[in-house]
């Protein structure tokens, strides 16, 4: 590819790619601030945290100090309101440069745990929980998935039965990000009959008697602590109901739409990392008397990676504009998530092929991303569920 690009330049990388008109000087300033934080505070320690299976608790305070934890939240709770969703895309892209989704998943887990409280909780609950979380002092997780199922939210089995001024919670949750180390948990429970109408959200706290956690080991996201949660007659004050009883399904679905947009941005950022790193490797690696990058079969891999990444980026930005305009494009957000996870999967596979044996060694970004493809394809709504949701939206 030497006939097209000079060394160190690639129009598809984070710094030389097409600059979308949707990004303002404020977005660029936030990117620069976050990149400095990632380079100084995160990147040097990724392998250490991967082996440890968690990130240090003091990292949350550091992230809060630069505005990362509070980005997009109300100022009254210590957050920093933003004008549009492109700040979230910038955040996902810069965090994606780590090639370690577990760091991002744990550090920003409040992004799915806290919104139900902000959007549906009482003022007392918001004041009690949000300032501590946004200051990096507390960790807030979301607990929806159960051993019997994940994407089928309407069939949650964990029960919460009202007994005087408390709910008594029994059941379990599975695959919960930050499940061991969190302080607050927004937990889906069944307070009524079958189906979505019987679902509610309760705020649980880590030290409540009868609430236990077991750490889980995973294929990817090693730096993120993941756990199974168990509730054995856990007594939760009535005041910890998030919103109204029976309002849980609505709160969960509202959460999913934002989560899918963020996951798509993150997946595409990691796909771009695969292109960047494999291209740099192919320029330096020589086989059969010429650079690996000069073999046509390899060149075509780069072109196809770039095509998928750019198509996904355009779709991502289109969805972000629509959400900012007040729409809730459920079908397109679902398709976007499928598009992004398929692009990530393709780029991770092709990058591994280009690296060859070196890509199989632990400690490089492409190897970590390859292990994390499936969690991006399953988490937040699996590809199959997303496609079926789209078909239902189309009234097929």
Question: Shape from CA axes?
Answer: globular
| Proportion of beta-strand residues | 5-15%
Number of strands: 9
CATH topology tier name of the largest domain: Butyryl-CoA Dehydrogenase, subunit A, domain 3
Termini separation (Å)? Answer: 46 Å
Core attributes:
disordered N terminus; 14% strand; 3 domains; globular; three-stranded mixed beta sheet; 14 helices; single chain; Butyryl-CoA Dehydrogenase, subunit A, domain 3; four-stranded antiparallel beta sheet; Butyryl-Coa Dehydrogenase, subunit A, domain 1; 396 residues; Butyryl-CoA Dehydrogenase, subunit A, domain 2; alpha+beta
Describe the protein:
There is one protein chain. The chain is α+β, with helices and mostly antiparallel strands. The chain has three domains: 25-120, Acyl-CoA dehydrogenase/oxidase, N-terminal domain (Butyryl-Coa Dehydrogenase, subunit A, domain 1), CATH 1.10.540.10; 139-246, Butyryl-CoA Dehydrogenase, subunit A, domain 2; 250-393, Up-down Bundle (Butyryl-CoA Dehydrogenase, subunit A, domain 3), CATH 1.20.140.10. It is built from 14 helices and nine strands. It has helices spanning 25-42, 46-52, 58-65, 86-96, 101-107, 110-113, 115-120, 123-134, 248-284, 296-324, 330-355, 365-371, 373-378, 383-393, and strands at 140-143, 159-163, 166-177, 184-190, 199-205, 211-216, 226-237, 286-287, 290-291. The chain has a four-stranded antiparallel beta sheet with strand order 2-3-7-6, with no helix packed on it. It has a three-stranded mixed beta sheet with strand order 1-4-5. It starts with 24 loop residues before the first helix and ends with a helix.
């Amino acid at each position: 590819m030497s006939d097209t690009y000079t060394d160190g330049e690639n129009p598809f990388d984070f710094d030389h790619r097409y600059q979308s008109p949707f990004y303002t000087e404020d977005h660029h300033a936030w990117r620069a601030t976050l990149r400095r934080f990632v380079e100084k505070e995160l990147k040097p320690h990724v392998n250490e945290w991967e082996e440890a299976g968690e990130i240090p608790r003091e990292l949350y305070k550091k992230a809060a100090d630069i505005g990362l934890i509070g980005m997009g939240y109300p100022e009254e709770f210590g957050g920093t309101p933003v004008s549009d969703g492109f700040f979230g895309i910038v955040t996902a892209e810069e965090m994606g440069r780590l090639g370690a989704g577990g760091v991002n998943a744990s550090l920003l887990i409040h992004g799915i745990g806290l919104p139900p409280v902000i959007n549906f909780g009482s003022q007392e609950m918001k004041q009690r929980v949000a300032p501590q979380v946004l200051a990096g002092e507390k960790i807030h997780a979301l607990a929806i998935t159960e051993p019997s199922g994940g994407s089928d939210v309407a069939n949650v089995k964990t029960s919460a039965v009202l007994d005087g001024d408390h709910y008594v919670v029994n059941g379990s949750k599975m695959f919960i990000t930050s499940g061991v180390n969190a302080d607050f948990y927004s937990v889906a429970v069944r307070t009524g009959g079958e189906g979505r109408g019987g679902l509610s959200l309760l705020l649980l706290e880590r030290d409540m008697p009868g609430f236990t956690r077991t750490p889980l080991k995973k294929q990817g996201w090693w730096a993120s602590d993941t756990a199974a949660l168990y509730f054995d007659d856990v007594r939760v004050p009535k005041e910890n109901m998030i919103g109204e009883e029976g309002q849980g399904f609505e709160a969960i679905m509202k959460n999913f739409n934002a989560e899918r947009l963020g996951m798509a941005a993150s997946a595409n950022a990691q796909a771009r990392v695969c292109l960047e790193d494999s291209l740099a490797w192919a320029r330096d690696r020589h086989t059969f008397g010429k650079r690996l990058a000069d073999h046509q079969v390899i060149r075509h891999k780069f072109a196809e990676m770039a095509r998928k990444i750019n198509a996904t980026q355009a779709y991502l930005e289109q969805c972000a504009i629509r959400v900012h305009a007040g729409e809730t494009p459920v079908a397109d957000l679902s398709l976007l998530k499928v598009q992004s996870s398929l692009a990530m999967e393709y780029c991770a596979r092709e990058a591994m092929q280009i690296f060859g044996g070196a890509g199989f060694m632990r400690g490089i970004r492409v190897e970590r991303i390859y292990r994390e493809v499936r969690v991006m394809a399953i988490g937040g709504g699996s590809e199959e569920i997303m496609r079926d949701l789209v078909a239902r939206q189309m009234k097929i």
